[in-house]
Amino acid sequence: MLLLRAEDGDHLNEPIRDKGELQAFYDDPEVVSTYLRRTSRPIGAVLHERQVAFLNGLIRDLAPERVLEIAPGPARLSAELDPVPVAVGMDFSPRMLADAGRRIRERGLRWNLVRGNGFALPFATGTFDLVFSVRFVRRFEPEPRQKLYGEIRRVLRPGGHLVLDAQNRLVAGPHREGRTGYPVYDELWLRDELVSELESAGFAVRHLEGIMRRFRWQWQVQRLQRFGVGALARTIIRALERTPDDNPSTWMMLCQTTGSPVRRAR
Questions:
Q1: Number of folded domains in the chain?
Q2: What letter would DSSP give residue 180?
Q3: Which of 32, 88, 92, 236 is spaced 20 to 30 A from 74 at the CA atom?
Q4: Is residue 264 part of a domain?
Q5: Is the pLDDT confidence value at 212 over 70?
């Protein structure tokens, strides 16, 4: 199978939607080796900082004993999080897991990395206090997303918390119109649609944190990097993050389980 990447300047007529093809894409050596490249760009760097800060703030506030990250890739986030008593990262890609292990060891952290399938999580019911996953659930269409939500609810303890990211259709949609470089499926939501979907899956949305709050301006500012002033671009992009988040490009969502615990179907 030919796997196309954003850096190639090519695009697919239709984004990858099939679970098996997505798994192959994210285990492709070129995709793995260039995955962290986005964090070297001004917008990518600030987005990364904000996501790490959001997660570390929750770890301090919620004090979870057992944390699971689904699809950590090369440990972009987990390698920079505050320690917890039990931390588990699960990914399907052996190459991503190998990179994640190297980054975590370099930082002297303790994460248990396991290979597994997000649609059949290899953990007992009620194992975790906090589950988070970024750039994973949004890669799937509505029906498989419901299966993912069900498995996540199952492995969370009653009252446990889930953190996901989501893209705002009102901002990300116009930005992507006519652009290439999006080889995999990516759901875009309106705010009310997002909240409704999570509530129907058995989660109460406790907080929506807007990130990339002035995306159109921030995207223009990023172009300063071409002139060798990437540091200045990052400073301006960070400053714009202090504005109100009424219409951001990205949301980080804190959710909490509601209702009765879910059991795995036999």
A1: 1
A2: -
A3: 236
A4: no
A5: yes
